[in-house]
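1st attempt posting a full record on here, be nice pls
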Amino acid sequence: MFISTLVSFFINSNDNLIIEKNKRSDYLIYSLLLYFFLCFLLLWGFKFADQFIGLPPHKIYGFMRGHKWYTIILLMLVIGPLLEEISFRLFLRFTPLNISLSFAGLCYYIISTFTQTKYYSLDFFTGIKVVVSLFLAFGLYRLTMRQSTNRILQNFWRKRSLMLIYSSIVIFALIHLGNMEDITRKHIFLFPLLISPQLLIAFFASYLRFKCGFKFAIYFHTGANFFPVLLLLLAKFYS
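the predicted structure (as tokens):
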């Protein structure tokens, strides 16, 4: 049942079957188990690529060295998953509020990129970015609440839902290329492999967002981050 609904969803997202409440936790667990199994298989690809081409270094190691353990947990298991799910999954079901909040999250990413500031940090400039993003989102909310605009957007979401899902998955994965350092021409063919964990997170989170509700997408994202964060924290403490 789980696999069939997963495949059906990515072929025809208009399948509006919602998982029963008493089964949603099971589907969350199935998704996490399948995700980690697929990531385990991907380790062979990463190992092969590192031996024959060489993988670019990851910024996560600098991040781990530069932050306290409780800050790492807060950013990677709470704020990160929440912000990313709002930005890339909340809008997949159309409402003016959903679209506006997702737009606020995307504005935050764009401002962070152009100002070359940290995406996740607890400082004054982060507060400014949040305020500006919410202000722009409020303007979009007022626009989408207009009856004519709302009707046009509803039709677009209904007809192009699958396109929106796949677009959000690809964009979500591509922005994580920014986590890599010293990417050169030889790494171009490795891009699908380098972003494969994020592609998988986006696939399963999108599925759970539709079938079980938005909070289950957040639960999945947090669960997907949990074991890598745990291993990195253990390495931090015992290195």
